[in-house]
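Section 3.1: Structural characterization of target chains.
Under the original work plan, the team committed to producing a structural model for every single-chain target entering the pipeline before any wet-lab resources were allocated. The record below documents one such target. The sequence was received from the expression subgroup and is listed exactly as submitted; it comprises 256 residues.
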Amino acid sequence: MINKISAFIVDDETPARNELKRFLELEKDFKILGEAQDGAEAVSAITDLKPSVIFLDIHMPKMSGLDVARELYLLETPPLIVFVTAYDRYAIQAFEVNAIDYLLKPFDRERFARTCAKIRDALSNQRLLREKAKSLGNYLEEDRRLRITGRKRNSKEKILIHIRDVLYFHVKLTEVIAHLVHDEEYFVSTTLKSLVSTLDPEHFQQTHRAYIVNLDHVEKVVPLFAGNFNLVLKNAAKTSLPLSRRYAKKFKQFLK
C-alpha cells in the first residue's frame, strides 16, 4: 500500500478551499487531513494532525498566512508549505526562493500538478527539505521586521500591521491612514515623508502629495489629462487613486 502524502488546506474563502480539495482529490498519492478558514484554527489543527504539506493562503484577516507559517516553523518537524496568493509580484519575489512552491490565483489543473511534483521531489530529498526549511525560516524572521504599529479609529489599542498588507497610505488632514487589503483602516503615527524614506521603493512609491501606493497591488494605470493618471488597484473594490504629473515619470519606471 502506498504511503500517501498528507495535506492540509488553509484559506478564509470557501470556494478557494473547495478548488484546492478538488485538485488534491485528483492526485491519487495525496490525502486531505483537514482544512481551516483562519490562522488560529489552522495552527491548532496542524500541530495536532502533523500533515506533510499545507496549502496556505497569504491574505487572511487577523492572522495572515505568513503569521501561520512563522508559528509552524517552530514545530519540531514543520510541514512543507505551498503559499497561495492573488498577488503575483509578491509571490514571485518572496516565495519562489523560500517555499517549496507558490500558487498564483487563479491556477489551473496543470499548474497544480507541477506543484504536486515539486512536493514529491522535496519529500524524497532530505537535503532539499533542510535547505528550504532554513531558507523559509530566515525569510520569516526578516518578514517579522516588516511591520508597523497602527490603531483603529477611536481606539488606543495598537496593532502590528504587515507592510505587504497595505494597499496604500493616505494623509487626511494631519493623520496618516494605512488602507489594508481586507478593507481595514489603521491610523499610523508617522508622516508620508518618513514612510518614503523607510519603505522599499521597489514596492512602494509616492504617487501624490497625499498618497503612497503599494506597487504589488496596482492593476493598471489610466491616463487622464495634463499628464495626470489614475491608478486602479487589484482589490475587490477596484480602488482608484491619483497619480499626479509630479510623480508620474518616476512611478511609470516601476511598472515596465
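DSSP finds eight helices and 15 strands in the chain.
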